[in-house]
């Protein structure tokens, strides 16, 4: 599977962790820096015409450079640190402080990108992304995440409920984000923690709510009825790290 990435920051971060080909149709300082990084990583650099790049990107809105990243077929992410959830748990055996996110029905790539950016900043150990009813990691996600998608370990899962059961069997407490839940700051989020985040429209599905140990919320006092899911995700990630001290 291949992914086309067009923003400078996303290309730079993706080349640090992945394989692919850098395509160039013009020259400037930033592109020269990308070419130098590509050569240091043994990534092929190919000169093409502007028309060829327009066809590759689907528009003329590119900046004269594209990175076509090679991504393993079985995952939405570019960080292939773990092949599956079982392997992740084996690698983390004995670790008491872990943070996993499970995204339920988040279809907007802008939200996914923003969540991955925060996940990198707060050193999230793993992001679980369902194969159905969810945005995959694409060029938009890469751009919004400012390249963080290349650093955050992620796995595509086929059964979210089963994934939560597996985490619980391995010492995780599962917390679902819901406006009717207990205040997150007053809930013990230390230890092996999984945060489940649902879509803004429907929230977490009933099936996954039933799998959660506790629902948590973020107190608000404004006029709108809810936070954007990526904003809520960032606040909850911060709260987990804050409690760890």
How many helical elements?
Answer: 9
Q: How confident overall, as mean pLDDT?
A: 89
Structural class per helix/strand content?
A: alpha/beta
In the CATH hierarchy, what is the class of the largest domain? Alpha Beta
Output the CATH homologous superfamily of the largest domain.
SPOUT methyltransferase, trefoil knot domain
CATH architecture of the largest domain: 3-Layer(aba) Sandwich
Order of helices and strands: EHEHEHEHEHEHEHEEHEH
Keywords: Methyltransferase, Transferase
GO biological process, one term: RNA processing
Organism: Oceanispirochaeta crateris
GO molecular function, one term: RNA methyltransferase activity
Structure, described:
By secondary structure, the chain is an alpha/beta fold. It folds into two domains: 69 residues, 60s Ribosomal Protein L30, Chain: A, CATH 3.30.1330; 167 residues, SPOUT methyltransferase, trefoil knot domain (Alpha/beta knot), CATH 3.40.1280.10. 36% of the residues lie in helices and 24% in strands. It has nine helices and ten strands. The strands form two sheets. The protein has a six-stranded parallel β-sheet. The protein has a four-stranded mixed β-sheet with strand order 1-4-2-3, with helices on both faces. Helix 1 packs parallel to helix 2 and helix 5 packs parallel to helix 9. It is elongated and about 55 Å long.
